[in-house]
Amino acid sequence: MRGALVGLSGRTALVTGGLGTLGSEFVKTLALEGVKVEIFDIKTDLPPILQELVNEGFEIRVSLVDITNYLSVEIGFNNFVEVPTVLINCAGLNTVIGPLPLEQNGPFEYYSEEEWDSVIDSHLKGAFLVSREFFRRFKSSGQKNGSIINISSTYGLVSPDQSVYEYRRQRGENFYKPVAYTVAKAGMIGLTKWLAEYGGPLGVRVNALAPGGTDGGRGLDPEFVEEYEKRTMLGRMASVEDYNGAILFLASDTSRYMTGATLVVDGGWTAR
C-alpha cells in the first residue's frame, strides 16, 4: 500500500466498468490506498496491472454483472462481503475505434433507435440501477458516510466538436460523434444533482467527474489525437493517471463539503 494519503484505507468501493480504460485505473488507485475494491463488469479477466495487485495481496474482486439488468445488479450486491461506502459509476458504451455502420456513427438522420437505447441504457439506466441498490444497502447498513462519483464527460457539458472528426469524413467514413453519448453524459450530471439532494440527509455525497479525451493506450488514430490536442489549452490529451487525484478527492472526506457538483478535468477543453 502506498499510504493512507486521504483516509480511505479499510473502506470498500464498487467500481462499475472497472476493467475498462479509466475504470481499471480507478480500481488500481483505490486499491493502492488500502481500499477493498469490488468491480462490476461484463467480463472477468483482470488486466495485467490489476492481476499483479491481486497477486501482491491487494483486495480486488470482480463480478460478472450486466448493470442494465436489475436482477444481475442485485445478485452482484449479494456477493459482497461488506456494503460499499464508495460507488464509482464508470460503465458505459463509447465509440468503437474503426469504421462503423451509419446507424451507429453516421449522420443524425441515420442514427438507429437500437443504438440510442444501448448507449443510454449502458450509461444512465445502469447508473440508476446500481445507485438505487447502493442506497438500499447503504441505508440498511446504518452507515453515514458515503460517496458516489458519476463519470460524465466534457461532452456532457458541451456539444461534441464535430470538426475534430472532419479528417475521417474526408477519407470517406461519414463519421459523427453520436447524439446518445452526449445525452447520456449530460444525464449523468442531472442524475448526480438529483441523488445529491436525496443523499444529503443520509450522509451520501454525490458528485460527477467530467474528464476530457484520454489516450489510454487504445491505439487511437494519430490524426484524431492531433486534432484533439489542438483544441486543448494544455496541448495534449489526458493520460489515465491525470484523473487519479480527482477520484481520491471525491471519494474521500477531503471533499466532505462538496456534493451535487461536477468536477471538470479536461485540459481546458470546455474553457474556450
Automatic annotation (TrEMBL):
InterPro entries recorded: NAD(P)-bd_dom_sf, SDR_fam
- Would the keyword Oxidoreductase turn up in this protein's UniProt record? yes
- Which GO molecular function terms does the record list? oxidoreductase activity, acting on the CH-OH group of donors, NAD or NADP as acceptor
Question: Which SUPFAM superfamilies does its entry note?
Answer: NAD(P)-binding Rossmann-fold domains
Does this entry carry the keyword Membrane?
no
Keyword list (alphabetical) reads: Oxidoreductase
Q: Which family does it belong to?
A: Belongs to the short-chain dehydrogenases/reductases (SDR) family.
Official protein name in the record: Short-chain dehydrogenase
The beginning of the lineage is: Bacteria, Candidatus Yanofskyibacteriota
